[in-house]
Amino acid sequence: MSESFSLPLRPVRKKTDETDTLPIRIAQINAQRGSFRDVTEESLSEEIEALRVSGKQASDIAEDIESGNDTDDKEQQLFTSRSEMLEFATQAQVEACYALDFVSLALSKYAPRQVELSMTPYVKLKIPGGSLGIDKIKTPDQTEADRRDIEVVSKGWKLESFSSAANNLLEAATRLQKEVAAETKYWSEVLAIKEKGWKICRLPRERQTLGVQHGFLEAAPVFRDRGLSALRRGDEGSLYVDQGIYASPPRVVRIRIQEDGNTVGVSQPACVKHDSNTSAQETFIHQARDCLFEEELFYELNREARALLRHGIETRHNQILFHLSDSRQVLVDMVPIDEAATLNQDATDDLPADDLAHAIACSIRILLTHAHRKNHRRRTQIPTAISVKKRQTAEYPLLQPSIAYLQHRSHTQWLMSCLHNITNTLLSAGLKCKYGTNNALPKDLPGTLPNHNKHIPLVESLVESFLNTQETKVSGDFLSPNSWYKILVRTDLGPTALGTEFTIRTTLASLPQQQITQRFGTREDIKEFLIYLFTLDIVHTIPFRGGTKTVSSLPGTSEREVATNTHGADEDRTDIRTTVTEAAIWEPTFAENGELTAYMPGKNSNKKLRVILNEDSLVLHCMSMSSTEAGKVEDIRYLWTVNQTEEESHVTLQEALRRIENSE
């Protein structure tokens, strides 16, 4: 084993290299030996001799020699000590002068001339002589009664101090008890709010204060920051929600529908019904959330309206206005909730368009919530590559889908009404044609998509289908065989779209082209084109070739109608399939205008026939001129209307043509 070694446990004392300064030495001497007046040469000699006898002088002398050897620059130390001595001497002189001035000023009241010699000029200038005096007062002797009074007073003060301390302790205990009760009540209400599902967190700028997140994290930054309110404690511990400088009266978005200047529909204000167990704080949080949502909704509606000005949407006087038809318009504004509730109470009877106004109000709120969900999904996905180009925030499609749907429905209903009138008009003339709509599901519905994203809920997919372009297909047949038309009504209110567009694809036997595709942007254009096509088809279905032709050869005419019309035209005929031996040779001259001409070989006369088709009427106008009798003109006119019923006695187009051919 190695040799044992000792390890000291005491800390090593490090000797300081710095010596004490002269003021410290003087203070030490005064503390140890008293004043310098008591130090004499004889006393120092006796002390040195005593230390030498005791054996301590040698070590002290050795320490002095060692400390002297450690000094590198004695001259510098000498000058430093000299400057310190001069500084202290100067300070002592100044203090002595102050004392002399004080004594001289005190004696100036009694011997002014003598003390002026010892006063400094500054004191003479600033302080007048005799302003300070000295008087000798004899302190009265303290008696036994005075001492007893002092003891009694001191005991009274002590008792009063103890009583005050006890009262303070009791007050502190009471205050602490109230504080504990208030804190318990506050935290219980905070816990109740958290258990309801609200997010509790610290305020960003007040870390010591709790707040509740009642806003939407996916909203615009100005509304996202306002969605955090402080949960502050009242005087008695009750909790109240502090919205800060953003507190404002609650307002809601209102939808009104006006027709010819009269209000025919008003939306109900959106509100949440609470039960009796709901606290006032939670009700206020719900109200703050709804008000913030309504403000963001109106803000986004104004942003979108400015982008849709080209589609007829107007913003004026803090209102948004757009037209549903020529006589009906929709107004969107934001009013206090009390005003909206008052209007609803005044209108006791339901207005005819309340359901439409409520549907528009619900749709814009659903679409804003859908936009928040899309923002959340985009934020939680893998971010795109960093680009120098700043990403612009597009407007939310809130009004656009509703307006597109309403306009599309209006155009589709108008088109169906137009086709219904034309078809019924032709039916009243004995001409059968049909039309219908394609009620198949759109290709972009979630159930029909082959690569549908399974992570997107079905409800959001249905809302996405509502955001797509509105399309409706209408198809029908003409009178001629193998002649048909297909109309696609497409409504798109995008920034670069043109609104509603009608695309018609036609196959008509009388046209030289196999198929014709036309696009129209207004109702009048598509209506004129449809009337033109039906007129052209009617003109070419009228029998116009010479030779023997049966009456039943007219397309679109049934055998029952042929039998009835033949019997009504000539009662002497017994065969339904009786032929016309001397048939007129009809030939279209201006088919686009509905004009035909015919030469009657057996009667030496020319006939001019004109077909005039409107949406609600069909006119067959015939003018006949005889070649033997100059100046004789025969005018025949037949009219069929859309409101003509089967019970009314009327002739068909086939019978009218036969009468025209048989007329003289």
From TrEMBL:
<dbReference type="GO" id="GO:0003712">
    <property type="term" value="F:transcription coregulator activity"/>
</dbReference>
<dbReference type="GO" id="GO:0006357">
    <property type="term" value="P:regulation of transcription by RNA polymerase II"/>
</dbReference>
<comment type="similarity">
    <text>Belongs to the Mediator complex subunit 17 family.</text>
</comment>
<keyword id="KW-0805">Transcription regulation</keyword>
<feature type="compositionally biased region" description="Basic and acidic residues">
    <location>
        <begin position="558"/>
        <end position="569"/>
    </location>
</feature>
<dbReference type="InterPro" id="IPR019313">
    <property type="entry name" value="Mediator_Med17"/>
</dbReference>
<keyword id="KW-0539">Nucleus</keyword>
<comment type="subunit">
    <text>Component of the Mediator complex.</text>
</comment>
<feature type="region of interest" description="Disordered">
    <location>
        <begin position="549"/>
        <end position="569"/>
    </location>
</feature>
<dbReference type="GO" id="GO:0070847">
    <property type="term" value="C:core mediator complex"/>
</dbReference>
<comment type="function">
    <text>Component of the Mediator complex, a coactivator involved in the regulated transcription of nearly all RNA polymerase II-dependent genes. Mediator functions as a bridge to convey information from gene-specific regulatory proteins to the basal RNA polymerase II transcription machinery. Mediator is recruited to promoters by direct interactions with regulatory proteins and serves as a scaffold for the assembly of a functional preinitiation complex with RNA polymerase II and the general transcription factors.</text>
</comment>
<dbReference type="Pfam" id="PF10156">
    <property type="entry name" value="Med17"/>
</dbReference>
<dbReference type="GO" id="GO:0016592">
    <property type="term" value="C:mediator complex"/>
</dbReference>
<protein>
    <recommendedName>
        <fullName>Mediator of RNA polymerase II transcription subunit 17</fullName>
    </recommendedName>
</protein>
<keyword id="KW-0010">Activator</keyword>
<keyword id="KW-0804">Transcription</keyword>
